[in-house]
Design goal:
heterodimer, A: alpha/beta, 12 strands, globular, B: 317 residues, MetI-like fold
Chain lengths: 327, 317
């Protein structure tokens, strides 16, 4: 019997309460093993960042309703309180954000911010914590790291800041790293460097990573498995290879077709028409149907069936189910 | 940092010169004959001319300004027309009293303002926020001379706990650190603290609410900081702006307390200024305004330097 998975999410639902409710996540389930990289792929507003933040309980408590089960390392994340939750954050699980300029405190130096996390979780002296901060900056290959230790976020370039953010996230050797579009705010050349660095560090530290992105090229670069998310639910999951080669869901096809890679000059990109739904109510039929060129009456009438090869390879679409039935 | 400070000090020199010119000009543009208060109503034209000569009012404005400026640089602001005493001594005595009052009032106002503002911002949109905001709005809008009189009625007249007027027992106007003097300070200082309290509270509330909504606060929580750890970050982010507001408020209190000093007969600059205006005592008026204006300049300098030291984003070059 193999080890139990590091992360187990079961039927997760997140609803934002307000003047108008938003059903941001509607029944997401997945598992993640140690040392594995999962990418959640989807458009803006599909609920992928919300799913990620739930793993750290970073959503504003008084305005969200969270349902389902979230377990990391066997611990129930949704039941954590006070110090236990704080130990979980940054200790077992840490996170890198989309824009490091916004996610780092502008009036503390990089060194102070990393050392603070180390002191908080490992109760070492501030000198030892600073030494760790320096070591981490060297690990993420920031040039003249000793000098950068005393730099403020605004004194560094975008790529350098994201490296510092990664150093901060990894300073306490987390078992799980959450990466929320970590390359979106960066130049294309810097993006690649950061992705390579992340992959390298992931293998070196042997940690699990959940990567959130809207860029399928990034997903292919870093992940073992991909989950495609639409309107607050996973529509298709599989290994990276399965998703790229044997995509079953029309939305996954759309994402693949809308990608720049392999397009010829002058060729029109095959964009998916329309926009994602507003999610003011929980979907009762296929949420993608209004934008789907294969949509049938049954798609608009009820939730699509799930065709499941095994636990980690399934798709929720009528087409795939029919293909299965006729085969 | 040292070079920055030196440069900032250098920049204030032309400002100070401008301030001296403006306050000289303003006083001379204003209508009214300065000699009215010293000459008897039936004084002869000859006597009036001789007095003009003695005080130098017969010379051109440029000459008058240069002579006044030259003396001011040596610390001589002339003699008061009404009392004949040196202006510098009068102003310095009054400045000491006003400084005492303004500093104590600012400390009270700043402490309470930060407290209310912080609590309101942290518990935004709850009843705690509404209560704290209500208090700060009252602080900004209540007329402070009225508040002063109400406090006098309650604590001096009704309860007889605190003295109503003056800076010390027996009309003493020099500050001494003893209980009697502190007792005299309490009512005017509390009255005066209400305005900076309101303004600081509103500023700090907006600041804290803004900081808490920024993404780096999520970042701090994501790395496992407890509430007090996050609080330390919020304070360090809010401090430069809050201190700048406090510095400006202290500046206003130094010059703008004519009403409160009059209500409490506090022998400070505001009281002195009031006297000088009513008696058309030009040298005294000029001297007082100049000293107050220079205080404001120095205070702004201090605020700038402190803010630069606290906030790394302000350019030091």
């Amino acid at each position: 019997m193999s080890k139990p998975p590091l992360v187990e999410v079961e039927d997760l639902t997140v609803r934002f309460k307000g003047a108008r409710d938003v059903y941001a996540v509607n029944g997401v389930s997945f598992t993640l093993d140690e040392g594995e990289v999962l990418t959640i792929l989807g458009e803006s507003g599909s609920g992928k960042s919300v799913t990620l933040k739930t793993l750290l309980r970073l959503l504003p408590e008084n305005r969200t309703d969270i349902g389902g089960k979230v377990r990391v390392g066997g611990e129930d994340v949704l039941a954590m309180q006070g110090r236990k939750l704080a130990d979980h954050r940054g200790g077992t699980v840490s996170m890198i954000f989309q824009d490091p300029m916004l996610a780092l405190d502008p009036v503390y130096t990089i060194g102070e911010q990393i050392a603070e996390a180390v002191i908080r979780h490992e109760k070492v002296s501030s000198k030892a914590a600073m030494a760790r901060a320096l070591e981490m900056l060297e690990r993420v290959r920031i040039p003249s790291a000793a000098r950068r230790l005393k730099a403020y976020p605004h004194e560094m370039s975008g790529g350098m800041r994201q490296r510092a953010m990664i150093a901060l996230a990894l300073a306490c050797k987390p078992k799980l790293l959450l990466a929320d579009e970590p390359t979106t705010a960066l130049d294309a050349t810097v993006q690649i460097q950061i992705l390579l660095l992340l992959r390298e560090l992931q293998q070196e530290f042997g940690m699990s990573v959940i990567f959130v992105t809207h860029d399928i090229g990034v997903a292919v670069e870093v992940s073992d498995r991909i989950a495609v998310m639409y309107a607050g639910a996973f529509v298709e999951t599989g290994t990276t290879r399965e998703i790229i080669r044997e995509a079953k869901h029309p939305y996954t096809h759309g994402l693949l077709a809308a990608n720049l890679v392999g397009a010829k000059p002058g060729q029109r990109l095959d964009a998916i028409p329309g926009a994602p739904p507003a999610l003011e109510t929980r979907p009762t039929s296929c949420a993608f149907a209004p934008r789907c060129k294969h949509a049938m009456d049954i798609c608009r009438a009820k939730l699509p069936p799930i065709r499941r090869w095994h636990d980690r390879r399934w798709v929720s679409c009528v087409l795939a189910a029919e293909e299965h039935a006729s085969a | 940092m040292l070079i920055y400070t030196a440069r900032r000090i250098l920049y204030t020199l032309p400002i100070m010169l401008g301030v001296a010119l403006v306050c000289f000009a303003l006083v001379h543009i204003s209508p009214g004959d300065p000699l009215v208060s010293v000459l008897p109503p039936d004084a002869s034209e000859e006597l009036r001319l001789r007095m003009m000569q003695i005080y130098g009012f017969d010379r051109s404005y440029v000459e008058q300004f240069l002579i006044w400026l030259g003396r001011a640089l040596q610390g001589d602001l002339g003699n008061s027309i009404a009392t004949g005493r040196p202006v510098a001594a009068e102003v310095w005595g009054a400045v000491g009293n006003t400084l005492m009052l303004a500093v104590v009032a600012t400390i009270i106002g700043f402490t309470l303002g930060c407290l209310f503002g912080f609590v309101a911002g942290y518990f935004r949109d709850t009843w705690i926020d509404k209560l704290a905001s209500f208090i700060s709005v009252i602080g900004v809008s209540v007329p402070h001379y009225w508040l002063g009189m109400v406090l006098v009625i309650i604590f001096s007249v009704q309860l007889n706990w605190l003295p109503a007027t003056g800076a010390g027992p027996g009309g003493s106007s020099a500050w001494v650190w003893d209980w009697e003097h502190v007792r005299h300070l309490i009512l005017p200082a509390v009255t005066m603290s209400v305005i900076p309290m309101g303004i600081v509270a509103r500023t700090v509330r907006a600041l804290v609410a803004d900081i808490l909504s920024q993404e780096f606060v999520s970042g701090l929580r994501a790395k496992g900081l407890l509430d007090r750890g996050v609080l330390a970050h919020v304070i360090k982010n809010a401090a430069p702006t809050a201190l700048a507001v406090m510095g400006l408020q202290l500046g206003y209190l130094l010059g703008g307390s004519i009403l409160i000093e009059t209500v409490f007969s506090w022998p400070g600059t505001g009281f002195l200024l009031g006297q000088a205006i009513f008696q058309r005592d030009l040298p005294l008026l000029q001297g007082t305004i100049l000293v107050l204006a220079l205080f404001f300049v120095v205070l702004n300098l201090l605020v700038d330097v402190v803010q630069t030291a606290l906030d790394p984003r302000v350019q030091r070059s």
